[in-house]
Amino acid sequence: MPTHFFPPSRFTAATAPGGLPLLGHVPAFIRRPFDFVAGLPAHGDLVRLRLGPLDAYVACHPELVRRLLTEDRTYDKGGIVLDKAREVFGDGLATCPAAAHRRQRRMLQPAFHRDRLPGYAAMMAEEIAGTTAPWHDGDTIDVPAAMYRLTTAVTARCLFAAHERAGSLPVHASMDVITRGVGRRVMMPLPGADRIPTPGNRRFRRAQQDLKEITTRLIADYRAAGTDHRDLLSVLLSAEDEDGQGLTDAEIHDQVVTFLLAGMETTAATLSWAWTLLAANPAVRDRLHAELDTVLDGRPARHQDLPALPLTARIVSETLRLYPPVWILSRTVTADTRLGGHHLPAGATILFSPYLLHRRADVFPCPDRFDPDRWLTTARPAPGTYAPFGLGARRCIGDTFGTTEAVLAIATIAARWTITPTPGHRVRPTRSSSLSPRPFTATLARR
Ligand code: HEM
Fold first, then answer.
1. Is residue 319 located within the same domain as residue 288?
2. pLDDT for res 169
3. Fewer Cβ within 10 Å of end Cβ, the chain: N or C?
């Protein structure tokens, strides 16, 4: 792993080839989004795209991505990807502008404090056990659906622990519709398409209303009880800014939706990809089983086991490199500026893609190979080279939560089960703003 990735003295800029009249690069982007984006560094460090009537720039060089993400006042949340997401997340932590961000981040940070993690991990362990309890030797499961059930149960439980088995809350059904809807909307760069009253758009609006009703009821219940349930909602309710002001119910609602949306599909996708990668790399899987047999001896993984599971952790890091669930994001330029020596006008959309960065052969030799041991070095990757959780002020607040959940789930499941995808079926990603696998089945074998 490179510890230093020296910026060149001059960054190159170009327009991506192959743009069509009117539509520009939209067809290429929609048809083969991952290959299209991963191919952009071949044209320049900063590449301009035409997306219908809009121009967008893609920062392809790690150093430009680092600048983009650390100068969050010049490059604020916004642009085509973020604007669509904001319709759903509201002004929650992930989508609010820089001006509102510092206050929110300071108020919410305690929810993810190191001291709270063992408590969340205990809830995670229970939900992992609950999700896998009905499994039998020889069963065939839809892997992404099962992993999504698991992470929904975990996130809902850690948000609303007071509702003993959060899995029974109707948030699951609404979140399913919303998550898919957001992904599709973000990938539809043509303006106005999501306002057409199609059945899909109507289902989406209804799911948003249902979720609003559920969270409104839960917030009222929690406020009435006034107890700290050691869960995320309790922290949101007790959060105060420097002037002693708490969050309003509407702000709490936006944060709840943000945590649900930001936490569920990302971790579910990580787990689903990990099973495909382990099945395709039996030598790594054998070593994983050896680690788990030594440390766990068949029992579920707990928070205190984490330091003894280094290979499991490397498998998660390498899965996030090959398949970063948040694979493309945008920012908006707030004032005329220069990036890498090139002019960017105020209002321009600028994109960056962890997927693109992680597939750069000059940073990760043999980038398409699944090799968890590339993380054996103790050196940290240079900023901007590995960014599954982003970078700078807007870096993921749930990074440790998400990786803890992924490591516990892989360890607990792989200690007892071998998951083998049904042969003859290539697992492909959905065309969405999140890099998730399409439905695929696998057979469960009891170890
Ligand atoms: C493997 C799992 C996860 C991945 C890959 C992931 C990825 C990311 C990325 C890339 C960002 C930065 C977005 C940007 O720069 O525009 C982000 C932000 C965020 N994530 Fe995560 N995330 C994961 C899990 C979670 C979990 C479990 C939660 C909460 C329970 C969460 C909550 C958030 C929030 C609230 C933000 C906005 C942070 C801010 O702007 O201050 N994420 N995530």
1. yes
2. 59
3. C
Residues 174 and 139 in one domain: yes
Is the predicted pLDDT of residue 225 greater than 90, yes or no? no
Of 122-126, 174-178, 206-210, 275-279, where does mean pLDDT reach its minimum?
Answer: 174-178
Residue 198: band (very low, low, confident or very high) from pLDDT cuts 50, 70, 90: confident
Q: Edge-to-edge strand order for the sheet containing 349-352? A: 13-15, 46-51, 54-59, 349-352, 329-333, 75-77
239 C-alpha vs ligand 1 centroid, how far in Å? 20
Q: Are residues 112 and 20 in the same domain?
A: no
Indicate which atom in ligand 1 lies nearest the CA of residue 101: 41
What's the token pair of residue 131?
Answer: 């999700």
Q: Are residues 139 and 34 in the same domain?
A: no
Question: 248 and 339 share a domain?
Answer: no
Cα(19) to centroid(ligand 1), Å: 32
Number of structural domains (the chain) is: 2
CB of 111 within 6 A of ligand 1: the answer is: no
Let me know if residue 94 belongs to a domain.
yes
> pLDDT tens digits for 286-301?
999 999 999 999 899 9
Residues 55, 101 share a domain: no
- Tens digits of per-residue pLDDT, 46-63? 999 998 888 999 999 999
What is the reported pTM?
A: 0.93
Residue 164 has pLDDT above 60, yes or no: no
Q: Supply the CATH number for residue 423's domain.
A: 1.10.630.10
374 located within any domain: no
Q: What confidence score (pLDDT) does residue 166 get?
A: 45
Cβ of residue 93 lying under 6 Å from some atom of ligand 1: yes
In the chain, the amino acid numbered 229 is H
- Return the structure tokens found at 365: 């030799």
Q: Which domain holds residue 173?
A: 71-326+388-446
As a whole number, mean pLDDT of residues 376-397 equals 91
List of residues 6+ apart from 250 with CB closer than 8 A? 90
Say yes or no: CB of residue 79 within 6 Å of ligand 1: no
Does the pLDDT value for residue 179 go beyond 90?
Answer: no
Residues whose CB falls within 8 Å of the CB of residue 412, separated by 6 or more in sequence, listed in order? 125, 128, 129, 132, 296, 300, 301
Is the CB of 388 within 6 Å of ligand 1? Answer: yes
Whether the CB of 326 sits within 6 Å of ligand 1: yes
Residues 6 or more apart whose Cβ sits within 8 Å of residue 330: 56, 78, 79, 80, 81, 82, 349, 350, 351, 352
Asked if residue 1 is part of any domain, the answer here is yes
Complete DSSP assignment for 233-261: HHHHHH-B-TTS-B--HHHHHHHHHHHHH
Q: Are 81 and 196 contained in the same domain?
A: yes
Residue 401 CA, ligand 1 centroid: distance in Å: 10
User: Do 10 and 131 belong together in one domain?
Assistant: no
329 lines ligand 1 (CB under 6 A): yes
